[in-house]
Each structure stands twice: as structure tokens, then as C-alpha cells.
Specification:
Chain A: This is histidine kinase. Chain A: Its EC number is 2.7.13.3. Chain A: Keywords: Kinase, Phosphoprotein, Transferase. The complex is a heterodimer of chains A (496) and B (127). The radius of gyration of chain A is 44 Å and the shape is rod-shaped. In chain A, 26% of the residues are buried. Chain A has 14 helices and 18 strands. In chain A, the strands form three sheets. In chain A, strands 12, 13, 14, 15, 16, 17 and 18 form a seven-stranded mixed beta sheet that branches. In chain A, strands 6, 7, 8, 9, 10 and 11 form a six-stranded antiparallel beta sheet that branches. In chain A, strands 2-1-5-4-3 form a five-stranded antiparallel beta sheet. Chain A is an alpha+beta fold and 496 residues long. Chain A has four domains: 112 residues, 2-Layer Sandwich (Beta-Lactamase); 123 residues, 2-Layer Sandwich (Beta-Lactamase), CATH 3.30.450.20; 85 residues; 155 residues, Histidine kinase-like ATPase, C-terminal domain (Heat Shock Protein 90), CATH 3.30.565.10. Chain B has 127 residues and is an alpha/beta fold. Helices cover 46% and strands 19% of the residues of chain B. Chain B has one domain: Rossmann fold (3-Layer(aba) Sandwich). In chain B, strands 2-1-3-4-5 form a five-stranded parallel beta sheet, sandwiched between helices. Chain B is built from five helices and five strands. In chain B, α1 links the parallel β1 and β2. Chain B is globular. In chain B, α2 runs parallel beside α3. The chains are: A alpha+beta (496), B alpha/beta (127). At the A-B interface, α9 and α10 of A face α1 of B.
Chain lengths: 496, 127
């Protein structure tokens, strides 16, 4: 028979016919081989056939088989190969040694039959029997894929998510569940996974999409895990349709932006309101002041008494505005405390000296016992001043006779942490245990006798407690009705 | 010692209060304007020793006024003190950076206002 005749036979079979030298060099490469492997004849002649072998650790084994085939007839076997595009195929391979007339080995003829589709069917049958019931009981869509990227198992949830019947899904390339723009890159990723199989979430940090039978895309979250079986490695992908979650995320985002806008509006409203409320107060407090200073002329004692009431009320209104503004700033997170190491005694002394005249006027003794060696505290200067002022002010306000004592005391808590406590102890009317429960709430004015003339915003203690909390501290109250109260400001000690 | 003081304030009641205190208690010669534009004209004409200036005003606010007066060779030596009803921290910071020589917050304390104002006068006579 002529060479042409052989040529004709070789080119008419769909199988890959490849002639090899004993060390694996490609000598002939037919059209079937071009089709099967994706490489042209020119790309392969003279090159090693072993570059088609996967995984790489089977290389030695394949070399041995070829060596064996040089010497004896060997049975056909099945093996994976990698195509030029990176995809894997499953081949039925037979080898035949061809000798020259002088008996010397000429070449090895290998016949490679692509049986990928048969393997896929086998995989599907195998998996169906073993895993289907199990997978139908999971909440996620599960699609199992073999090394060729063919779907070999899908659960009911996968049918629902992608809109395909199970029978339609089996044998399909897994890419048909992805938007077309991802197809080509996915083939590569898929082969990478088989080379280095480990459980992971797919495309972590990327937005992934699936596509339904009707072409509709939907966002998904996918986790991949390899499954080693006697039929080879398979990939199990658990797919979660996150359309609802994405929608909620988007809604949350736009809600957040709305809230931020509202918050900004509230802030500028606060700034404007504070400004607008202070402007008329300036004239009220100012002209009441000029009258009381008797700049325009003398006053009768009744006029002076009434004007003093106007002045007190106006100042009360001002402190109400200030407290409200402070509270609003705290709730908006606009107050930041500037923590530094401070001597609480020094600040308490400043407050005591400003309040001493008021105490004397009321006939109260305002005393302090502030040891100089008390540990320093970690606090914000302005806030600390404001709290101490509020606590001593309250004590003076609610004590008709007797004394108000200020003292400092370091303590260690159970964890060994250092705290410094400032006590403000009065001999006033005291607070019932029911009232103590609400003491630090906003706008709590206690049900005290004769409190009609006691001025207060009802915000002071609430604000002080908030400010103490901002500094990592706390205000505590100990009181018995009729026997006076002790308010304790607990501050973080500054460790040396 | 009597001084020439310009007060710029759009709120009539607050303007009257400051004028009254400065004249009655301090014995100063006081000129007035109700926005920044009027204020600049008055400052050039009267050449006061001190300017008290509200911050939020129509037409030209206090920030713009102090920017113009400090850029004007004929006015830049005159101390400008802001009188503001704003207590928000960010606004106070803005005032400190705007070029004012100092600021008072409203409501002003009528007992100390004149004395505090005169502190800025003694500074200006130094240079």
C-alpha cells in the first residue's frame, strides 16, 4: 500500500492518531489529533507529547507506559489530557509498536479516542446514586462539575435557581450557567482549580453573577470544594442566589445616605436655632442688666426684685438652651472628649471658689478635703469642670441648712484598675429610692416639696452622666430621704 | 479715656444695648452700621479706634467684613472684635481663623462688657 493510502486512512478517522518516538517526540499528528487537542500539526511535530499529560505527577507513569509499549503489546487505558485552550479531556488510549523491515523499532502509533462524554455520563450516574438525596436537602443550589467542566449533578434548588430541568442541566458545560462575558476566563479558572483543588469561596471580593435559562442575570455567592471519588476529582459548587440580600444592601445604603442628609440637616438646624434663640436673649439679659446696674437711674426695691426675677428666668432659659445643645451634640456624636491627665482636685477647687459666694449667701458650709497626693485622673478638662459644677450646684440647691462636703478618694476595682472618686456629700432633703431610679433620665424633676422655686432644667444630671460616660466614667448616687445625698463621680485613674 | 468705637450689628435691640453700654457706662463716642458694607463706609469715614462686629448679617457678613478691612491699608490697623451668638465649635474655630482680633459670645455680660471691650483699645494704642 502506498504512503498516500495510509495517509487517507489516518486522516479519515475522528480519533487522534499520533506517531511517537520511544522518548515521546511527536513524529506524526493527524487531523483527528488537531481536533482533539486543539494544536495544529506544525505546533506539535518534533515536540514532546508529555506536555499534554495532566496532572504532572503522572508524567513518570506515562513515560513507563510508553517504554513498555516499545517492547510489548499493552492494553488500552484511560487518562486525562489537557487541550490547548486549557480544558481537560478524557481519552481511551491504545499503543502499538511499528517496526521497520530490518526488525528495528520505527515508531509507536498511539490511537487516542475522546471518551469525555462517556466519562461524564458515568460520573453523573455514579453521583446521582450516591449524593442526590443528600444534596436535595441543602438550602443552597448545588452543582457538581467534573474535570471537563460538565455538570454531572444538580439538586432541586439548582433547577429552581437557574430555571433548567435537571435532565437539561446534566452534561451541559458549567459555563452555560454564567453570563457569556465570563465564559472564556472561566475555562482557565476551572482548570486551575483542578490543578490546585481546595475549598474556597469563588472570586472572593468580586461581584459574581449567574444566568437563568431565560437569560436573566442574578447575583450569586459561590463556594467551591473538591470531592475526591474513585471516578476522579469532582468540584462541588454551592451557589446562593443573593438577589434579595443585594436589594436589602442597596436599600440600606440609600437609607444611610438619607439618614446622613437628615443628620446634617439636624446639625445645621441646631446651629441656626441656637443662634436664633441667643440673639433675643442677648437683649433681654443685657437690658435687664443695665437696669439692675442702675445705669438709667435708681430703682424702687419692688422694681429691683421684679427685674431680678426677669434676669434669673432669662439666665435659666439660656442654660436650658446650652444643655439642650450639648445633649443634641452628644447624641449626634459631635462632642469629642480630649482625654488628658488632670488633677481633679485643682478643677474641683476652681468650681468651689466660684460657688462659695452662693453657699455663703444661703448660709451653707461648702468644705473640701482634697488630699494633694490623690492620683491624677484621665479626663476631658471642660467636661470634668461642667460635671463638678453641676454636682456641687445641685447639692447647694437642694440643701436648706447644713453643709456640702467635697472629697477625693482613689480606689481599685476587682480587675486592679485604678479609679478616682469625687464625692459631693450634702445634708439636704435626700432622694427616695423610687426617685433614684429615674435620677439620670432627661427632664426628670423630682417630686420634692417646695421645689417650685428651685430652678433647674431637668437636664443637668442627665447631661453630666452622658459626659461622664464619654470619659469612661460614671456618676453614682447614694441617698436616703431626709438624710442627705452623696453623688460620686467615678473617673479613670491615670496610671503612672 | 473716651474712644471712637464703631459697632456693626443688624439686630436693632442688640445694637442699642451695645451702644447704650459703651456710651453710658464707658463714655465712648459710638458710631453704628447694620451690615458689613455700611460698616466699611463708616470705618473709612470715622476712622474709629475699635470695631465691634456681629458675624451673621445680611449683605456682607462679619467674615467678609474683617477680610476687607484687614486688606485695606487705611483700616488694617483697627482692631476688629467679633460679637457672635454662635457657640458651635466649628463656627468658633472659623471666627478665630478669619482674622478677628478677638470675639465675644452673646449673650454678652452687661457688667463686664465695657471693660472687656476696652482691653482691645489699650492694645491698639500700643502700635
Amino acid at each position: 500500500m502506498s504512503d498516500d493510502y495510509y495517509q487517507l486512512i489516518a486522516e479519515s478517522t475522528p480519533d487522534a492518531l499520533v506517531a511517537l518516538s520511544p522518548d515521546g517526540e511527536v513524529l506524526q499528528w493527524n487531523q483527528g489529533a488537531e481536533h482533539t487537542f486543539g494544536y495544529s500539526k506544525e505546533e506539535c511535530l518534533g515536540r514532546s507529547v508529555f506536555k499534554l499529560v495532566v496532572p504532572a505527577d503522572l508524567l513518570a507513569q506515562e513515560r513507563t507506559i510508553l517504554q513498555q509499549a516499545c517492547m510489548e503489546n499493552i492494553p488500552a487505558y484511560e487518562a486525562y489530557r489537557v487541550r490547548k485552550d486549557g480544558s481537560l479531556i478524557y481519552l481511551n488510549i491504545s499503543m502499538q509498536a511499528v517496526h521497520r523491515s530490518d526488525g528495528q523499532l520505527d515508531f509507536i502509533l498511539t490511537n487516542n479516542k475522546d471518551v469525555t462524554h462517556l466519562k461524564t455520563k458515568r460520573d453523573a450516574r455514579f453521583l446521582e446514586a450516591r449524593y442526590r438525596d443528600l444534596l436535595d436537602s441543602t438550602p443552597d443550589a448545588i452543582v457538581m462539575v467534573n474535570v471537563f467542566g460538565r455538570i454531572v449533578l444538580a439538586n432541586g434548588q439548582a433547577e429552581n435557581a437557574f430555571g433548567w430541568q435537571r435532565d437539561e442541566l446534566l452534561g451541559k458545560p458549567v459555563e452555560s450557567l454564567l453570563p457569556e462575558r465570563y465564559h472564556s476566563s472561566h475555562v482557565g479558572h476551572r482548570s486551575d482549580f483542578f490543578t490546585n483543588p481546595r475549598t474556597r469561596s469563588m472570586g472572593a471580593g468580586l461581584e459574581l453573577y449567574g444566568v437563568r435559562k431565560n437569560g436573566e442575570e442574578f447575583p450569586v455567592e459561590i463556594s467551591l470544594s473538591p470531592l475526591k471519588t474513585e471516578e476522579g476529582v469532582l468540584v462541588m459548587s454551592a451557589i446562593r442566589d443573593i438577589t434579595d440580600r443585594k436589594r436589602v444592601e442597596r436599600e440600606l445604603q440609600s437609607k444611610n445616605m438619607e439618614l446622613e442628609r437628615a443628620n446634617n440637616a439636624k446639625d445645621s438646624f441646631l446651629a441656626v436655632m441656637s443662634h436664633e434663640l441667643r440673639t433675643p436673649l442677648n437683649a433681654i439679659i443685657g437690658f435687664t442688666g443695665t437696669l439692675l446696674m442702675k445705669l438709667p437711674g435708681p430703682l424702687t426695691s419692688e422694681q429691683e426684685k421684679q427685674l431680678s426675677t426677669v434676669q434669673r428666668s432669662a439666665k435659666h432659659l439660656l442654660s436650658l438652651i446650652n444643655d439642650l445643645l450639648d445633649l443634641a451634640k452628644i447624641s449626634a456624636g459631635k462632642i469629642s472628649v480630649d482625654m488628658e491627665t488632670l488633677d481633679a482636685g485643682t478643677i474641683a477647687m476652681e468650681v468651689i471658689s466660684t460657688l462659695q459666694p452662693a453657699a455663703e449667701q444661703k448660709g451653707l458650709q461648702l468644705e473640701h478635703n482634697l488630699a494633694e497626693d490623690t492620683p491624677k485622673v484621665l479626663a476631658d478638662k471642660r467636661a470634668l469642670h461642667q460635671i463638678i459644677l453641676n454636682l456641687i450646684n445641685n447639692a447647694l440647691k437642694f440643701t436648706e441648712s447644713g453643709r456640702v462636703d467635697i472629697s477625693l478618694e482613689p480606689t481599685l476595682d476587682d480587675a486592679g484598675k485604678l479609679w478616682v472618686e469625687l464625692h459631693v456629700k450634702d445634708t439636704g432633703i435626700g432622694i427616695s429610692s423610687e426617685d433614684q431610679a429615674n435620677l439620670f433620665s432627661a427632664f426628670t424633676r423630682l417630686n420634692l416639696n417646695n421645689n417650685a422655686e428651685k430652678e433647674g432644667t431637668g437636664l443637668g444630671l442627665h447631661l453630666s452622666q452622658q459626659l461622664a460616660g464619654l470619659q469612661g466614667g460614671q456618676i453614682l448616687c447614694q441617698s436616703q430621704q431626709g438624710k442627705g445625698s452623696t453623688f460620686t463621680l467615678r473617673l479613670q485613674g491615670a496610671e503612672e | 479715656m473716651s474712644a471712637r468705637i464703631l459697632v456693626i450689628e443688624d439686630n436693632q435691640a442688640n445694637l442699642e444695648l451695645m451702644v447704650y453700654l459703651l456710651q453710658q457706662q464707658g463714655g465712648h463716642e459710638v458710631f453704628t452700621a447694620t451690615d458689613g458694607i455700611e460698616g466699611l463706609a463708616a470705618a473709612e469715614k470715622e476712622q474709629p479706634a475699635l470695631i465691634l462686629c456681629d458675624v451673621r448679617m445680611p449683605n456682607m457678613d462679619g467674615y467678609e467684613f474683617v477680610r476687607c478691612s484687614k486688606a485695606d491699608l487705611a483700616l488694617k490697623h483697627i482692631p476688629v472684635v467679633a460679637v457672635t451668638a454662635s457657640v458651635m465649635a466649628d463656627e468658633q474655630q472659623k471666627i478665630e481663623q478669619a482674622g478677628f482680633d478677638g470675639y465675644f459670645t452673646k449673650p454678652i455680660d452687661p457688667e463686664s462688657f465695657v471693660h472687656a471691650t476696652e482691653q482691645f483699645l489699650s492694645v491698639s494704642t500700643g502700635d
